[in-house]
Design brief:
The chain contains 13 helices and eight strands. By secondary structure, the chain is α/β, with parallel strands linked by helices. The chain folds into two domains: 237 residues, TIM Barrel, CATH 3.20.20.60; 29 residues, no CATH class.
């Protein structure tokens, strides 16, 4: 069976701190996680939007619970070998809630935990109506997260959502506060131009992550362009579920219109390969070992 090895957090830290850009796909269920895991990325990003949508079918508006998110972290981290960055929203409440969240996510196998400075309940970072808590309250959350983690290689990603409502200057000020509080990675959410992205990268020595959402508020740039700006990593949280949604809509529309999958032009995952992806080879090996022994007995 799959699962993290003992050095997965160190591998992620080394990848983020190395020169160049680490491109990280968003995963939202075990199918997306296993496919991305096989492709060979340096890290995976468990998207809160995608997890909420796939698990509950509701908006990413602070409606999913800590227990529900923890169950997804446990499944994805336990079912893959690639270091996992896990979205923990606001920590699901105050400082005690955050302490519980860090302990739970770390025990579940996350390699990095992302927390943000929105008021609870939070909203998706590329939507309107977000409100942020005082910067010092968020800095205290970062200090609690650092004090709580048992493994110093568990990375704390500090995100600010101040740009959209309060402007870039306030977002940069908060980034400085969060870096001083000890955040390992800074996440200045939803800059609205390449010029703003350049200014962000020129403002910090702490590693920076870009959040690339197709159709969102931030320009979608190439990997070389993001690296040239100075980003250490880029997450693509929506790319997978937007692609999956488009493929499913096309496949189901064909099925509704024709009554069959016969003659469809949609690219399909080979069924035998999908069986292997889901681990059926382990089932078959188990049956071959134990059921044949019973037959002989």
């Amino acid at each position: 069976m799959t699962g993290q090895n003992l050095h997965f957090r160190t591998r992620l830290a080394e990848s983020i701190r190395a020169p160049g850009l680490t491109s990280i796909p968003g995963v939202f269920d075990m199918i997306s996680a296993r496919i991305a895991d096989q492709i060979g990325f340096d890290a995976l990003y468990m998207t809160g939007y995608g997890t909420t949508a796939s698990h509950l079918g509701i908006p990413d508006a602070g409606l999913i619970s800590y227990a529900e998110m923890l169950s997804r972290v446990t499944a994805i981290a336990g079912g893959t070998r690639t270091p996992l960055i896990a979205d923990a929203d606001t920590g699901f409440g105050g400082l005690l809630n955050l302490e519980r969240t860090v302990r739970g996510y770390e025990a579940a196998g996350a390699a990095a935990i992302q927390i943000e400075d929105q008021e609870f309940p939070k909203k998706c970072g590329h939507t309107l109506g977000r409100k942020v808590i005082p910067a010092e309250d968020m800095a205290q959350k970062i200090r609690v997260a650092i004090d709580t983690r048992d493994d110093p290689e568990l990375l704390i990603v500090a995100r600010t959502d101040a740009r959209t409502v309060h402007g870039l200057d306030e977002a940069l000020r908060r980034g400085e506060v969060y870096a001083e509080a000890g955040a390992d990675i800074l996440f200045i959410e939803s800059p609205e131009s390449e010029e703003e992205m350049e200014r962000i990268c020129q403002s910090f020595d702490t590693p920076l992550v870009a959040n690339i959402v197709e159709g969102g508020r931030t320009p979608v740039l190439s990997a070389p362009a993001l690296a040239k700006l100075g980003y250490s990593a880029a997450i693509f949280p929506a790319f997978g579920f937007l692609a999956a949604g488009a493929a499913l809509r096309e496949a189901y529309t064909t099925l509704r219109e024709t009554g069959s999958s016969h003659g469809g032009n949609q690219p399909l995952f080979d069924f035998s390969d999908f069986n292997r992806l889901m681990g059926f080879e382990d089932v078959w090996a188990f049956e071959a070992k134990w059921f044949q022994q019973n037959d002989k007995g």
